[in-house]
# Entry
Amino acid sequence: MHSIILRTATVFLKYLLLVFSVYLLLGGHNEPGGGFVGGLVAASAFILFAIAYNVEEARKRLRIEPAVLIGIGLLTALFSGLIPVILNKSFLTGVWFHGHSEIFGDIHIGSPLFFDVGVYLVVLGVTVKIIFSLLEEV
Amino acid sequence: MSGVELIPYAIKGVNGLLYLSIILAFYRLLKGPRLTDRVVALDFIATIVVGIIGLYTIETGEFYYLKVAIVLALLMFLGTVAMAFFVEKREDDL
# Structure
C-alpha cells in the first residue's frame, strides 16, 4: 500500500508493539498475558510492516526465517523441560532460581519463563509464516 | 454535593450510552450497504469496547483488563488497515 501516513506511523508503531509484546511475555506468569499473546502482538508488528511496505521488506526486518524461529522456539521449550531432569526431577517441573542483586532487587527466574519464551518464538514464527504466504498470493 | 459523589451515577449513565452506541454500531455492521460502512462500524465497535474496559477499570479498580484495552487499541488499527488493503485490491466491490 502506498500511503506515506501509514508508512511513517508503522515505523513508530512497530517498536511500540514489540516492546508491549515483551511486556506481555514477562508479566504473563502472574497477570493476563504470556508467551502466546506476546507472540501474536509481536507478529502483528511485522504484519503491519508487510502491509504498509511489502512482504520482502518485512522479511528483511525480521532478519531470521520464520521456519528457523519455529525451530528455535521448540528447542527452547524442550530445553526448559530438560533443566529439571538434570536436577533429578520429572520432566517439565517448574524450577526456580531466587537471587538478590543491588541494582534490580529480588530476581526470580524459573524454567516456566524459558518455556514461555519458546511459545513466544513458535507463535511468532507460525503466524508470520502463514500471513506472509497469504499476502504473497494476493 | 461534591464531584466525587456523582461518579457512580456518571458511570451508570456512560455505561448506558456506550451500550446504546454499540447496538447502533452493530446495526450499521449488519445493514451497511457498502463494505466500507461495515469496516468503519467494526472499527467503531472496537473503540467502544476500549471505552467499556476503561469504564470497568474505573468502576472496580482492577487493572487487569487495561492490557486487553491496549492490545485492542493497537490491533483494531491493524484490522482496519488490512481491510483497506484488501478493499484497495478489488475496488469494483465498493
The first helix of chain A runs from residue 4 to 27. Helices of chain A lie at 4-27, 35-52, 55-62, 66-86, 111-137.
